[in-house]
Amino acid sequence: MNVLQFTDNGIYCPAGDFYIDPWKPVKRAVITHAHSDHARWGNQYYLCENASVPLLRLRLGNDIQVQGIPYGETIYFNSVKVSLHPAGHIIGSAQVRVEQDGEVWVASGDYKLENDGLSAPFEPVRCHTFITESTFGLPIYRWAPQQQIFDGITQWIYENQQAGKASVLLAYSLGKAQRLLYHLKDKVDHFLAHGAIAIPHEVLLQEGWPLPPIERITPDTPKTAFKNAVIIAPPSAEDNAWMRRFQPYSLGVCSGWMQVRGNMRRRNADAGFVLSDHADWAGLLEAVAATGAEQVYATHGFSSVFARYLTEKGIAAKEVTTSYGDEDIITNPES
């Protein structure tokens, strides 16, 4: 039974008449998380996990019709049972469990298995069919424990300060930026941030998330404030006039893509920190195995390689083309 179908508008449930993370406007959309490639403007009705509601309103407008539900609560679309389960990707991220006549499909959205301390930890959901991302679906992508990575970032900041330099860290504005701030808050006294970081950060502070205060950089921020400072900025700020005011500074890029030798050089970065909010190769395999799924669809990323590997291991797997992948369209980028 095809509980879910891949259509021109997105992942569709015919019996329930809803879509999961549609990339074209539809009547009913179940949203896995608030990144711009999964939560798009123009749908009539949105359903998401409770913590995603203020983030969806921030990115899509306060006038959207959105309903939030807690993890594990079941609702019905016609005769179809739908529930949301932790994905561990960012705050409010969820996997969507869809059950029709005893057949269970799970659409994972984006996910990671390591507990970041903010996102609800990934929860494997047993199912017949699993739709998985494969952003880092190659064996070369294997993450070190996050504490090791944050220790490296802390040491890098210290060395920059000893050299009289500011430390500029590039990280996605929603998700990774908060992860950095959360794990560095006991190591750094004061953070400055680009407006694209500060806006969602302020929303999350208002919602009670345990994040440190930050200072938003504006045209009036004096140059003296940047000496030895720790500055968080989105990837889009790289190589533009906005960053020149921080000289002298050292640039660090926080991304899973830093695993590949040469990417740091191509980004003109002084340091590359392999920090990702997606599962690595081992994490993807562990997640698939934990579902017990007999059938797997691999979406955005190295989907053909990952699907082929699963097939060789005896799991019926296919590659599916979607419109996911560009997760950091900046809200109000002007600082």
Automatic annotation (TrEMBL):
Cited InterPro entries: MBL, RibonucZ/Hydroxyglut_hydro, Xnuc_lig_assoc
Signal peptide span: none
GO molecular function, one term: RNA endonuclease activity
UniProt-recorded name of the protein: Putative mRNA 3-end processing factor
